[in-house]
Design brief:
Tetracycline Repressor, domain 2, 9 helices, 193 residues, mainly alpha
Length: 193
Amino acid sequence: MGRNKTYDRDDVLERAMELFWRVGFEGAHLSSLVEVTGLNRFSLYKEFGGKEGLFEEALLRYLSGARDSYRDLLGKQPSGMQNIKSYFHALNYSPDYHGCFIINTLSEKHVVSDRAFTLVKKFTEEAKVLFKTNLDAAVEVGELTKKTNTKAMSEYLLTVDQGLSIYGIGDPDNMVKDQIIEIALGQLSAEKS
């Protein structure tokens, strides 16, 4: 007869997610994962298939929350420029901010599994679609000109978003972030001219 689990799977994933987020896949050694999750090596392998499986599940947990945040701000109706402005103005970095788990994973392409990398790439495509939907709506109502290349502009906004997530590590007072956002949003305003 098998032994009953003596741990909360959600709690284990939350703790693992925090560690992976803070130090990355490569920096999270098995001994650290055992310590932070409270699982022994056998349980970690039995439940998650090892470090790689635990990373993928922790990443899925993070992506679920990030997806909700993007949809809450960029998925509001009516679509348009206000959603984009609200999204960027909602970004806020604290002194203990350690980057974005998504960007951290992209930067570790050489060590994360193909599945983990694909999950992150799929998420960035979804974010791009949300930006483009709002840009298309802005064109439709005259907030942007008909000649606006909304596909390229959505790529630009995603690049600004990803760049800010890295920049935020060194800008805990959010002063430079706000200036960058104003410049980026100013580029959108220039499209109306």
